[in-house]
Write a structure and sequence with these properties.
Cathepsin B, Chain A; 5-stranded parallel β-sheet; 59% helix; Rossmann fold; 25 helices; 716 residues; ABC transporter transmembrane region fold; 3 domains; alpha/beta; 13% strand
Length: 716
């Protein structure tokens, strides 16, 4: 029997449905972002965090086939076509387009030769046919739900309440600020009553004693108001600092527990912008929670006071207030789109700047300074233009609010004056009503703006959630596995690795062991996955299948944190950090061992060169290594690894920049420590220095050939 709900949904007989704007977090997940947008359009509330868990995409990106497989798993049917631009009108929208040969976008609609697309990299765009023709690769894919499609909700979003509850002393501090705020607002409400007393009683009866009493009362209220405001500002500063420190520490600690591939798939500026989103959350919440509660109570209180003074005039005030609310709500979607666009483009500009600084030597040597400068300028102009759009909207709202308030004031003056002349209200009541009206309009506008700003926090919450809901590495309670400098054996048991569910395996079913104190060189042709294997062995990447054992203990059981305490690595892309040479060797220990620093430098054959420097071990280094040569940097990194007193030392081309004499000295020095060494190298001299040479891929190839011979014998 045909599912009528499926048929109706396929025919799209509903009123207009919106395509949400979902910006990709990783540089290669445009395909997943397109899938998320399509799913949301058809009613499945799913975000990138959950899609990433189910269909993780490697840093090399997704193919059309991998997108089709993911869509089928979500019970969505697909039809991929090679198509001309003029045939796109015939396709069911929204559909996925291949873009610039390296990207995916969602086509929403075609109107008057204008193409409306949702670009996961930058957001919603409307482009002309020429620009579309230059970017469209000629491949499009229709997507629609099948009969098993379910409108479920899979959203991992940060809970603001949980965030605030984890802040020490936050509830009590917030209560203090609220109490102070209500006292201040109570004094503000009393001021118009004093004005009314002077106009309706003091002036008419020429009562000098009452005048003196009222003026003294207002003066005392003013001093008390100022004192309360100072105390409130101080307590608010305390709360702001408390939240700022605790949130950022928690965020950074969590960031450090995330796996390596999280960072490899993202740009530096994007990760930094997510930390900045915490500032936006803090500023909005700390200021707006208090102000919002106070403004909400004040709006109710002022509304009651206005009703007591002039019930007919209240209707006019409420009418203009509702008009402002309607304007804000109508423009909300555009406002949040521009805000997200600005955040994304600013992050791109910051990433470009950071990459340029880190690659300055290559940029100068290749003569790329001008092109990098132009690219950075273009990215900044795009970010500034997005900010200008947002600023224009803010200016419009400010102007609209001023205009509405002014017209409201004029009409109130007109009708209120008529009521005074008709003796319906006194002059003092009318003046007091005007003061209350002014406060009400201001507080109501602030409350509306605050509610929309809190609504906009979903944008920043989603950006922070992308980090917080990413699964961390396997950490376990601290456990001293073995004494420092005591070697451990390591066994690799049938491990395989691939970057995502759709990509090919880098290696599969590898098994070998290294005895305690043994030195082994892993060899093989370039591109076979030796560096990837070492990253898996050192816990930087998680194997797709299989296990790693140290002293016959599974690494998963003890936790990566305990495992890393007993190993040290020198990888090809290792970095030195800003600080002194001594700090870099000791990995910035709070209490460093100066004797051990010198010993490790001697073992790495860098001690004499350090002592020739004017500042010796206190010589400052920048993040880029300063004036050190490639060989000096490598020896400092080896010294840093030895300072840890590891049980297993992983070296990936760690002596590639050294001459044979230096290399031989370091190899002999490390051999004397009797620790387990696993080396990746291409130099014959390095390979000759080890106890055993291991080629896991050759061993697997021999096994496969032997299996094939056995099968052929059976068949014979």
């Amino acid at each position: 029997m045909v599912d009528i709900n499926f048929v109706l949904d396929r025919l799209d007989l509903k009123f207009k449905r919106r395509i949400p704007n979902i910006i990709q977090s990783e540089s290669s997940e445009c395909g997943l972002a397109c899938i998320a947008m399509i799913c949301r359009y058809y009613g499945m509330e799913i975000d990138l965090v959950n899609l990433r868990r189910e269909f993780g995409i490697s840093s090399q990106g997704a193919t059309l086939q991998s997108l089709i497989e993911a869509l089928i798993n979500l019970n969505l049917k697909t039809r991929a076509l090679s198509i001309d631009i003029d045939e796109l009108n015939l396709m069911k929208k929204p559909c996925i387009l291949h873009w610039n040969m390296n990207h995916f976008v969602v086509l929403i609609a075609i109107r008057n030769n204008k193409f409306i697309i949702q670009d996961p990299a930058i957001g919603k765009r409307t482009i002309n046919i020429n620009e579309f023709s230059n970017s469209f690769s000629g491949v499009a894919m229709e997507v629609w739900p099948d009969s098993n499609f379910k409108k479920v909700k899979k959203i991992s979003r940060l809970n603001i309440r949980t965030l605030l509850n984890n802040i020490t002393n936050f509830p009590s501090s917030l209560l203090k600020v609220l109490c102070l705020s209500f006292l201040i607002e109570g004094l503000n409400i009393a001021f118009p009553i004093g004005t009314q007393l002077i106009m309706d009683h003091v002036v008419i009866s020429s009562d000098y004693s009452l005048l003196t009493l009222v003026i003294l009362g207002l003066f005392v209220f003013t001093l008390l108001n100022a004192a309360l405001r100072f105390v409130r500002a101080w307590v608010s500063l305390f709360i702001d600092t408390l939240v700022n420190v605790q949130w950022k520490i928690s965020f950074f600690d969590y960031l450090m527990k995330l796996p390596l591939d999280f960072f490899e798939k993202r740009k530096v500026g994007d990760i930094q912008s997510r930390l900045e989103s915490l500032d936006s959350l803090r500023n909005t919440l700390i200021n707006n929670i208090i102000n919002g509660i106070v403004d909400g109570v004040m709006v109710i209180g002022l509304f009651i006071m206005m009703t007591l003074y002039g019930s007919k005039l209240v209707l006019i005030v409420m009418g203009f207030t509702l008009l402002y609310i309607a304007l804000r709500v109508l423009m909300y979607n555009k406002y949040i789109r521009y805000a997200e666009e600005y955040i994304v483009k600013s992050a791109e500009a910051n990433s470009h700047f950071t990459e340029t600084i880190y690659g300055i030597a290559s940029i100068k040597s290749l003569g790329l300074s001008l092109s990098r400068s132009k690219n950075w300028l273009n990215l900044n102009i795009e970010a500034i233009n997005s900010n200008i759009k947002n600023t224009k909207l803010s200016m419009f709202f400010y102007g609209a609010n001023s205009l509405i308030s002014s017209i409201d004031h004029i009409i109130i003056l007109w009708i209120g004056s008529l009521m005074v002349m008709d003796n319906l209200i006194s002059l003092g009541m009318f003046v007091a009503f005007n003061i209350y009206r002014s406060q009400f309009s201001e507080r109501a506008a602030n409350l509306i703006n605050m509610l929309l700003e809190i609504k906009m926090l979903t944008l920043h919450c989603d950006r922070v959630s992308d980090v917080i809901f990413t699964d961390t590495e396997n950490y376990q309670p601290k456990n001293a596995l073995i004494l420092p400098n005591k070697s451990m054996d390591i066994r690799i048991d049938k491990i395989s690795f691939k970057y995502d569910v759709h990509s090919m395996e880098i290696f599969s079913n590898l098994s070998f062991s290294v005895k305690a104190g043994e030195s082994v060189a892993i060899v093989g042709p370039s591109g076979m996955g030796k560096t990837t294997l070492m990253k898996v062995m050192s816990g930087l990447l998680s194997p797709t299948s299989g296990n790693i054992y140290i002293n016959d203990i599974n690494v998963d059981t003890i936790g990566l944190n305990n495992y890393r305490d007993r190993i040290a690595c020198v990888l090809q892309d290792d970095k030195l950090f800003s600080g002194t040479i001594a700090e870099n060797i000791s990995s910035f220990e709070s209490v460093k061992d100066d004797k051990r620093i010198v010993e490790c430098a001697i073992l790495s054959n860098i001690h004499e060169e350090i002592m020739k420097m004017p500042m010796g071990y206190e010589t400052m280094l920048s993040e880029l290594g300063g004036s050190l040569s490639g060989g000096q940097k490598q020896r400092l990194m080896i010294a840093r690894a030895l300072y840890k007193q590891p049980s297993i030392l992983f070296l990936d081309e760690a002596t590639s920049h050294l001459d044979l004499k230096n290399e031989a000295y370091i190899n002999q020095s490390i051999s004397s420590l009797k620790i387990t060494r696993i080396i990746i190298a291409h130099r014959e001299s390095t390979i000759a220095s080890v106890d055993r040479v291991l080629n896991p891929w050759e061993a697997i190839a021999k096994l496969e050939r032997r299996s094939q011979r056995d099968v052929s014998k059976i068949n014979d």
